[in-house]
Design goal:
about 425 residues, mainly alpha, globular, O-antigen ligase-related domain-containing protein, transmembrane, WaaL-like, membrane
Amino acid sequence: MTNKFTFAFHCLVAFLAAAYPATILLIGGGYKPVPVLLLALAIPVLFTLKTSLFTRDVKLLILAFSSYFFVVLASLLVYGGNISEADIPSRTVLTLPILFLLLLYPPRIHWLLAGVGVGAFVAGAVAIYHVEILHMERAYTGHLVKGYMPIQSGNTAMSLGLLSLFATFYYWGKQKYIISLLFFIAALSGITGSVLSGSRGGWVLAPIVLFFILYHFRDLLSKRLFAVMSVSLFLLGTTLLPEVETRINQAYADVELYTQQDRSNTSVGARFEMWKSAWYSLEEKPFFGQGFPGRDLAEKRFVEEGKVDKVVELYGRAHNQYLEEAATKGLIGLTALIMLFAIPFAIFMRYSREYQRHDSQWVFAQCGIIHVLLVASYCLSQNFLNHNSGTMFYSVFTVIFLAGCMQKKQNVPA
């Protein structure tokens, strides 16, 4: 490749990496186009890879992503089932060529953060359009606007919002106050999108991630900045309070109905029953689970035996990624899922300690930590990775951030 062609190709790859968060909620199914383009660009690159590229961190990520997929294949070989069960987990392996592409042509931190900010702003704008213009009860409701799912999209909006909040402080520290303000607006927009989606699972670890961000930028928290952000958050909270209060009160009511009246036909009550069913499946076959067909049969048997309510038959999954993996693939499957989160998280944590705030690697690492923490929390109340949107969002963003961490040391321009 000539130098000019290499530079242009690098710009194209970096642009697509930044375009991914910017377009992910722009339209229904917006999570698909950019990864497909990146994969198409990555395939020829696979034939030029050198062994030096396979560092310890790269090998660990390959282990984490591959294990998750191959455990599913092993389950299908042992227990049988529809081969389509391996389709969505295969996205983790298909993301690996994109990692190699990005290792050779790393993402650019300012471009990527700009994409995150645009994506967060778009998330809020789309949610407001859905609720205020289309009069949808919840934003991103798929039966009215094809390609969206309220829980998946709402969680994605929260991630984009909190990553934008991180960028707010980052640029404030670089004394780029206008850019910082734009990112703060984007952060509020992304969080608004999550609230309007009614996806309560996206709010579980949000306070902890917020504390994580504030801790790293605690030296920037002047009284003036604190006052401005507090007023902005208060105004946003006042606007969104009815929606949040309604969803929280509904959750409390569901718990009360379940515990006091044994009512399982509510959102929370149904989840409790699904979790019980998954736990019973794990108890019966703890090592390698029930398999996909066996899980369905076991659930029907639990209903007949009166162990769980028949409401579980209305749902295909346990609405908890950890329990679902344990039920279908046992402790082996649960371990593979934990590795999927723990290995990238450990790598990001190490890079965050090795580099300083003026290094681009530090910024990528902090974003990676936020990303992994949030997706891991989404899996507590939703089978986030059992959907194309969830698996692709997690795996593609992870390799983007990881490739950014692994690039040669360079200072971020002021």
